Amino acid sequence: MAEKPENETVQKIVEAFKGADFDEVLGLTQQAVDEGLDPGSVLDDGLIVGIREVGEQFRRGEVYLPEMMMAADAWQEAMDLLDLLLGGQKAARKPAGTVVIGTVRGDIHALGKNIVINMLQTEGFEVIDLGVDVPASRFVDEAEKHKADIIALSALMTTTMPQQKEVIEHLYARGDREAYYVMVGGGPTTADWATEIKADVYGETAADAAALAVAYMAEQKGARA
Amino acid sequence: MIAFREVVNRALDGPITSEKEFDLKLFVPTARRLAKKYDIKYDPETPVPADDDLADRLWQAGVEFFLEVGVYCPDTERRIAFTPEEVAFALAYDRGPIMFGDGVDRRVFPRRQPEDSTPPWCSLGAGGGAVSSEFHLLSLIREYARNPLCWSITTPSLTHADGQIIIAGSPLEVEGAIRNMVLAREALRQAGRPGLPIVNGVASAAHASSHIAGSGFGIGPTDAMEIGAHHEMRVDFDSMNKVAYTLSRGAQIWAENGVILGGIAGGPATTAIVTAAYNLLDMFVLRGSTQHPFPIHFDLRTTTTRDTLWVRSVSNQAIARHSWLPVANLGYVGAGPMTKMALYETAAWVTAAVVSGGSIEAEGVAKNAHVDHTSPIEPYFASEVAHAVARMDRQEANHLVKALLKQYEGHLADAPVGVRMQDCMDLESGEIIPEFRELYRSTRQEMTEKFGLKFKYPSIYL
User: Fold this and answer.
1) Which residues of A137-148 are buried (b: 16+ CB within 10 A; e: fewer)?
2) pLDDT tens-digit profile of B72-105?
3) Among A51, A85, A119, which residue terminates a domain?
């Protein structure tokens, strides 16, 4: 059976993500809305499916970080449009979860963290990127401010790894340790290190980190149900 | 060549550019366009290509990339740009012989061509890998220096000083860097090679302050500091501060850059273009006496994947054929000490580097993720392989590398981490345990009998 015209436009949004035609995404989103499609359907069946497909392509080694970054940009532009069309209200989207992420104090390596951010975004997470060289207290402040579910800590040097522990100690000091799922990662870190510093989990790769975040949120959802 | 001060001035008053604009509007589209323009394509069947025209096209692409994209300074959010005339003058500049070391250990760093029979420079170390105590560090460096094929050393990174964990940014970082350096010099004295050049003596240092402090305790004009750019084509003021200090000291620089395959540099073709472009960044901004690259896989965190080997080989060839700034290739393998896989991986990346016109620094093992997971054997084996393949032609090397890839390629995601150095050697005597000695002996024999390698010298471990 032939697809309905409005579904074809939504399908084109997915295809634009899959084919790395990211410049097309915004126009197609506008077109879908002009055709009378429900913004929720454009979001669920077009934008979310499309950006997840880019994440899968990245996992399979078919595309690289530039495509992930451009996909995230296209997604954000389309989301801004949907928000605007809905009269300034946020599109009917509940993020998969909120993650506060950064590279710890003393460490200015950004690239691994940025890959993780893009992987999380393709999974529908709202990601608060604190950047690099982030003091321990700021992770805790920002997590509280954004009501985060997860704090993700990156460290690329053996001498900056202890700053991951420092963040966890700050959480304990404020009595907030149980409020967040703490993930650690980065070149010299290991699962043993995560256990030693009382983090919740270690992500060896960006894909691992995203999968662990998804699994944690699913577990939380299950616990709440 | 333009003065370093002029580079700093351009970082201070160059065109304002946001980081995102630099990445997505300039870096990515330029790399992609140049890959198409110069027909740079990765072929998984030729991890070691024997195509001079490809190497020449890659060099042209790298130069154009450097001129169009320039270098980003995150501190000022400005772009440092260079002119074609400045690049042409820099490349024509006669740098003269590049020398390191003192006394009997003073040598010229070779400018090698692909398939060159000139012995490659072999620097030994742990790629910045971490060791847990001063005693570990001393023992390891002493063992590196026992190797006559070792022409310079880079120190491992201390995680503790006096049993206390070294934390970046604290005074302990300064103390750690100083201790790294003092112990390295002492280890070389104990080994009877006090003139052996140190090309990175402050591996535990995260900031310029500790680099500078540590180098004051043992780096002279015949040594070098390793100074790196950040990913990708970015140099911040902290790195420029290290350069400013090192130049004032009259010491030299190994300019380090590990382009991440799969990161902002994209796939193999564009990663190779960026690696070639770094040769000019290293010349102009980091003021290197060598380029010290390690194209590394974003996910597997090694330099021994098939695609990173191709990047290594083709960019080495491009640089060797066109630039006076020689390449000292740094390698990271997936498997850890006392595993056959680590030796296979070592042979693969060293072969790809050396037959393509490079020298080596060997090496980080177990992805450099595990404290004390390092040993003197893997770097020693690397230096043996480097000398064995020095005059090999690229087709033969391609067959060899493919045969080696077959042995380990499927295991990189779950590479064995191996054992700690204290579990595979006596830290006091340096004696390697019999089990490890046998693994090394049998693999070395296999390299000769199955893979056709002809080692030039008898092993000090057999």
Assistant:
1) ebbbebbeeeeb
2) 999 999 999 999 999 999 999 878 999 999 999 9
3) A85
DSSP bridge partners of A101: A129, A152
Domain count for chain A = 2
A169 touches chain B (CB under 8 A): no
Tell me whether residues A111 and B231 touch, CB distance under 8 A.
yes
Residue A11 sits in a domain whose CATH number is 1.10.1240.10
ipTM of the complex: 0.86
What's the pTM value of the predicted model, to 2 decimals?
A: 0.92
Cβ-Cβ contacts under 8 Å, A112 against chain B: 298
Q: Which residues, 6+ apart, have CB-to-CB distance to B6 below 8 Å?
A: none
- Which tokens is B19 given? 């980081």
Task: Give the C-alpha separation, A52 to B258, whole Å.
Answer: 29
By C-alpha distance, the chain B residue nearest A193 is: B370
Q: CB contacts < 8 Å between A and B, how many?
A: 92
**Chain B CB contacts of A115 below 8 Å:** 262-263, 298
The residue of A64, A133, A166 whose CB has the most chain B CBs within 10 angstroms, and thus the best one to mutate to test that interface, is A64
State which residues form the domain around A74. 5-85
| % pLDDT > 70, chain B | 100
Q: Is B230 on the interface with A (CB under 8 A)?
A: yes
- Is B26 part of the contact surface with chain A (CB cutoff 8 Å)? no
End of a domain among A85, A116, A137? A85
| CATH classification at residue A122 | 3.40.50.280
pLDDT tens, A107-142? 888 888 988 998 898 888 999 999 999 999 999 999
Q: Give me the CATH number covering residue B398.
A: 3.20.20.460
pLDDT of B71 higher than 50:
yes
d(CA B127, CA B304): 14
Integer Cα distance of B114 and B135 in angstroms: 40
pLDDT value of residue A205: 86
Beta strand B71-73 pairing with A201-202? unpaired
Q: Are residues A158 and A209 in the same domain?
A: yes
Structure tokens at B75: 């501190």
The average pLDDT across B137-145 equals: 97
Domain count, chain B: 1
Mean pLDDT of chain A: 89
> What mean pLDDT comes out for the span B325-340?
98
What residues make up the domain containing B348? 102-449
Mean local confidence (pLDDT), A19-44? 89
A69 & A127 share domain? no
Q: Which residues of A touch B370 (CB under 8 A)?
A: 190
B156 has pLDDT over 90 = yes
Do residue B367 and residue A187 have CB atoms under 8 angstroms apart? Answer: yes
Q: Dump the DSSP string for A18-31.
A: HTT-THHHHHHHHH
